[in-house]
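Annual report, structural modelling task.

Input specification for the flavin-adenine dinucleotide complex:
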Amino acid sequence: MAGTFGNPEVVQEEVDILLIGGGMAACGAAYEIMPWIQAAKEEAGIDITVKLVDKAAMDRSGAVAQGLSAINTYIGPHQDPADYARMVSNDLMGITRDDLAYDLGRNVDDSVHLFEEWGLPIWKTVNGERFDGATWPKEGGKLLKDGGDPVRSGKWQIMINGESYKWIVAEAAKKALGSDNIQERVFIVKLVNDANDKNRVAGAVGFSTREDKVYVYKFKACLLVAGGCVNIFRPRSVGEGQGRAWYPVWNSGSTYTMAAEAGAELTMMENRFVPARFKDGYGPVGAWFLLFKAQATNAYGEVYMQKNKELLNDYPPYGQAAVPASCLRNHLMLKEMKEGRGPIYMDTVTALGKLRETLSPREVKHLEAEAWEDFLDMCVGQCGIWVGENVEPEKKNSELMPTEPYLLGSHSGCCGIWASGPEDVGAPTTEEHPDKDKIPAHLPQGWNWGYRGMTTVQGLFTAGDGVGASGHKFSSGSHTEGRMAAQAMVKFVIDNKDWTPTLDTSVESLVEDIYRPVRTFLEHKDYTTAIDVNPHYITPRMLQFRLQKIMDEYVAGVATYYNTNGHMLAVAEEKLGMLKEDAMKMRAKDLHELLRAWENYHRILTAEAHMKHIQFREESRYPGFYYRMDHNYVDEENWHCFVNSVYDKDTKTWTVFKRAHKDLVDKSK
Ligand code: FAD
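The model returned the following structure:
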């Protein structure tokens, strides 16, 4: 029986492996893990138990919840994973882990083939005839595997009819794992270290978002794949538009915060993603740029990528690649906005007009339907905007706008956790690193320490948005990384079969901690007659506004056109410190607010990591995403390196340091 609001029931469980999250990476792990568990039983006589917990419902949770219209990472039989690693590196201004990107590139296609097998319609050209949503053959068929070329919208991207993408992938994961091993609507708040080994995880705690229950899990290994982070910066959509953002609003930095508190080394937390998207609806632009060959212009119809192309020469070699780095494309756009030549438009009228010159009216009609479907598949809100504002793309251009910043490691961003790479791809050690004395001694040397996807904390694995220094995995790559981590976790559990987890904190104090916002509310709620106005507590909503204001105004949000400097960061540091203290006074008047309170707590620590890394890196590595105006240049000599950090949850302080970067793939090609 569930407890009461002030006094939750406590459920304790022990499993060998816990999967935290139910998104693409978790679904990949859930699908992959069972055969390895079966093999462990048959070959070594070891029974391994596994459980998946998601704060939401897996069918529609995470970044793919609304569906997608493209799979952005598919290598195919005619391309080289090394080229993929080269692209990832250039797009992220040279500082990525080639071992991780290459490993992903050589494995990712298998996940895409599985998606197709499970029923995801992938656009194809077979014997010159194109099949897509409208013309899909009734009998179906695995065209990608058995013949036919996928319709590419770019070198690495393929088009899909993906409104139900997440549903399809989740169904396979659920079927593989079994519904008894899945717990939905449980928000994990903390990882718990082992009592006998500080650098090891032994458990996790969370609470039900529907019932008064706290869950305490013990395990030997866990996969932390709770996505990236949104809403730490004041969003462009406020007031009546609040809740709209490009990144899914329910991924609140849990991955980075829980890993940091457990002692895991983070990497490249200064990196962020500022996508340029259709204004207000955040609709995708990929199909317009890549498939319909549209161009973006300033208000006077000038194509800023051509007009401002000289600016790319300031950033060799990243600006001169065939496709300049994403941040630099924003950089060229921002010049127009800052100098008063906005709004920026996607020139849909010219693009569709040009297509009309070569295609029949029927084919053009079909393409227009595809343009709408692009939004319907993955961002239905943008259709609402087009309908509401009478936009017919063949007659009226649509505004583009760079969004507020988001933190993620699987799209065009690379912040995250420092994770072990594959064993067979070269791994430079920290011996050659100029600041090696500053690296905490307990950390492993090099890029591989035995288990693919394991962080610097024993037993703590990650994938997808969690793995730092290697972006552009997207949906398929995140699924693949989850699968690789699943295999490694089973190996880890076999290697540690006699080890018993012991929590370093009592269950009572964990429960006390998690329900603190509820107790704060119950204790003080009668002090005032207006429930939201009370000197003893702050509502999660108000606290979130404070966080967003600090980040927006001092840490290079939209308010300052993404500009900051050392002085502004010092102010942010002080204000974030006070906010962290006040976060202890958040109230929760119901379970929904309890969720909001802990999401905010995760956001604050993630925001602090972001700020600390930007403060440490004395250059502007990602012009167009953020500028340190006191070091407004890319400094290859001093900063062509990873910036990593470790958080000490007892002293609440960060140690930030450099790690040497090395190209494993020849970048001169
Ligand atoms: P997610 O899939 O986001 O999953 C995170 C999971 O963690 C969710 O289940 C969530 O409910 C759960 N969770 C969060 N916090 C907690 C907690 N504290 N406790 C328990 N559970 C928690 N990829 C493409 O291939 N093509 C595209 O066109 C494309 N477009 C995209 C558009 C947008 C707007 C975004 C945001 C992403 C897009 N991607 C695309 C990328 C792709 O969606 C991601 O790379 C992928 O989903 C990342 O997988 P993940 O498992 O790391 O995170």
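Residues 517 and 587 are 4 Å apart (CA to CA).
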